[in-house]
Each structure stands twice: as structure tokens, then as C-alpha cells.
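Checklist before submission:
- one chain only
- standard amino acids only
- sequence pasted in full

Submission:
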Amino acid sequence: MKRILVLTSGGDSSGMNAYIKALAKMCKKNNIELLASLYGFQGLVENSITKINYDELGEIQNLGGSIIKTSRSKDFVTQEGFNKAVQNIKSHNLECTIIVGGNGSFNGARDLFNAGVNVIAIPGTIDNDLAYTDKTLGYDTACQNAIDAIVKIKQTMDACDRGTIVEVMGRHCSDIAVRSAILCDADLLITEKSIGKNKILKKVNDIIDAEKKNPLIVVQENILDIAELAKYLQDNTKKEFRATVIGYLQRGGEPTASDKLYAINLACETIKCVVASKLNIAIGQNNNNMIVKDIVQAVSMVKEPDYKLFDTYKQYTKK
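Returned file contents:
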């Protein structure tokens, strides 16, 4: 019987549990034993390994988070901790180790591969910032959560004719911000650090002069302090502004149907590759087709801005 291990690493994304459930089902169908490392790479260092039984998982596909826990392991990035992780992996006689996570997790997968460990990397991050794949698991849910929150905030701001500034997640990737701006009909989108307050003020004044009583501004995280921006705009436009950081709300909750289906497709492709001994890869999706990429190549690719998404925003919001 083949034996594989799965772990979730870094920030959680809604869809991780759906992937674990689908992976467990496919393992049962293919007579493969499934183990899990608790708290991601930290579990490898501490040898905190447990068996996953599909029949005991219930309806976890409907839950956010990760039932096998996740973390950013400080020990794994040390030489001593890494060596322990490799030793513990090899002691369990695994066909491969499956890492579900984002950029940092993929770097860990590559390092394990370089140390002689067979790996499969799964794109589990809300940020959608992995270049080799069109989408990451949890991105669609994060966008929907952001949009739901913005719609609610916008309704109460509309009632008071207040300006609204909303910061969404994405780390250094603008995809959530742009998609949210399009679907919430934002008046201004800020995704560049180089933009100054005076330029923002001019744009906002133009929006107000066009008789927009409740301008909506969507800001990508790690760009600027939106509380300071709200005060600056309020002081210089004589219009009330409110700032909201949506934050972790975007990462939780039931996955969307799109993310659930993506989780199933990722799990099916994972087991297909395990059975065929096609390892040391990253699995993803391009043009609605499942794809596999060499792990080293996948990690080395740099994510570019989604120019098509930006074009849609510019066309749709052009006055």
C-alpha cells in the first residue's frame, strides 16, 4: 500500500478542508494510506503525524480553516529543524509529501525536494499570487467575502452620504482588490505605493464634483494607511470619510462552489500523479484545465499583475 502525507502551511485559505476531504476520499478509492502533519512544517519538525480516515471527516468541505492546522514554522527554516523534518519524513516511508500553501510553503516544498524528499505542491492561498497557475485555492472565496463586506459597508455609507475607504487583502498581489473594485463599482482603486495623497485628493474631488455623494475607494493592503487617508480626505474635502480594513474575514467561511470544485479537481489530479509516480511537481489550473509544473520551475516564476483584469476595471469605471 502506498502512503502519502499532507500538510497545510502559512495562512489558511477556505478550501483547504475541502481539498483534505477530497484527497482522503481519493486515497480510500485507490487504497492509499493518508497521513497528516499537524501545524504544517512544524509538525514535520516535531514528528506530529496523524492518520486521516475519510469516514471520520464529516462535512469538513463546508468549513473554512484547516482541520489539520497550519502555521509559519520558525523551526523549519533553521538547518537543525529542517534536518529533523527530512529525517522524520523519511522514517514514515512515504511515497510523497503534499504541501498546501502559498509562496513560502512552495519554497519549503522545493527545499524538501532538493533534500531528496518527493513532494507535490498545491496552491492554497487567498492571494492568487502564484505565477504558474491561473487561480489558487481560496482566492474565489476571499473575493466573495470581500465583496459581501464592501456591499454591506457601502449601504450604510450611502445612507449618510459618506465616503468609503476599504482595504482588502492580497499581500503584494492586486487581484482581490481589482476584482472587488469591479464588482462593487468602486470609484477609485489604489494598488500602487507611488501614488501620493495630493493625487488621490484630486481624483476624489473630481468624483465629488461629478455629484457622487458617497465615493467608494478600494485599496490593496500594504499600500498606505487608510485611516490616515480618511482623515486627510475628510479635512480637505469637507466630506465625512470612513476607513475599514476587512482583514481576516476574507479568509474564513464556507468555500464558494468554485473553490469546492477546484479542491476536488486538485485532489483527483494529486492522486492521479501519485499513482503514476509523477512527483516533485506543483498542480494548478490554466484556462480551466488542470496542469502540472516542475516544482523548481513553479517556484521560480514571478507573478505579473493581471492586466486583463485591470483593463476590465478601466473600461467599466471610465466616466
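Reviewer check: The longest strand covers residues 2-8.
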